[in-house]
Amino acid sequence: MTSKRPLLGSINRLVAFEAAARRCNFTRAAEELLISQPAISRQIKELEHTLGVSLFVRFGTRLDLTEAGRKLLSSVTVAFDTIENTALTLRPAVEESGVVKLRTSVAASNWLLPALSDFYAANPDVLLQLICIDESPSVDISDFDIEVRFGSGNWDDGISYPLLEEVIMPVTSPKFLRQHSIRKVEDLYNVPLLQLATHQSPLMDWRQWLPNQALDNPIPTLVRFYSTYSTLLDAAVYGHGVALGWKYYVAEALVRGDLCPVLPLRKTSRLKEFLVVNRQHVSKPHVKRTCEWIRAYAEATRVRFDNI
């Protein structure tokens, strides 16, 4: 049977590429996929040869993605996430199991992911299904147990508990800040600004920070638009410009030194991240424990990064 996708060849090449790109190391990717390191290298070389572009820049054992590699990784990640989420919906429900379905935006999942290993260790009987979407979840929790949702908290489809307030600050990479003199708000007119194409919060719009500047006017400010918040923050880390960072999403990157604040500017609103619980599932023991853990983790996050 002739392949319908001759350009891509074996799907194993994309699996190998995604693991290597995510871990920035062929050896660790091979360990994850339970294959040899030479097999990973061979599949990557075959994929690069097929596409006619280099996907990685190699510095000894360390890997960095090329522009082509970053573009491919973005598409592959979305495709794999879509397949995984679809597979989860096809699995038969097991009422007596410890399955907990948690829906969240990709941005909010980046806040949760660093601590989920602690959750799994403390709750080995809970099978947490994390369903991530690019935008904030819609106001319909009927197919899920709980979700992390951004907004005012005035929803009728579930019970809402506030997690973290909205605190927005301009951020960029240390290298970008060294290369550009930004000492006052007016200096932001002279550097690239990274902007979400669509957003729920007014504070994520640069017009709230530069009220005399229209975003559709490229002079004097260069505005670069992004469709997802995770991609926008990656662009800030790579030094593409100044982004508006939600404090608790960028806190880890600030601590690591991947990002740094631009000017002592902060803005807050009445909007928050909320934990929304399906009313029909709120009494389930596994759901209750998961909710308690997320709320405790949010409080610990708030305390830990209070001075940022």
TrEMBL record:
Family matches, as SUPFAM superfamilies: Periplasmic binding protein-like II (SSF53850), Winged helix' DNA-binding domain (SSF46785)
GO MF entries: DNA-binding transcription factor activity; sequence-specific DNA binding
Organism for this UniProt entry: Pseudomonas fluorescens
Gene Ontology biological process terms in this record: DNA-templated transcription
Membrane-crossing segments per the record: none
Keywords from the UniProt entry: DNA-binding, Transcription, Transcription regulation
Name the record gives this protein: HTH lysR-type domain-containing protein
Keyword Ribosomal protein attached: no
Domain (HTH lysR-type) ranges: 11-66
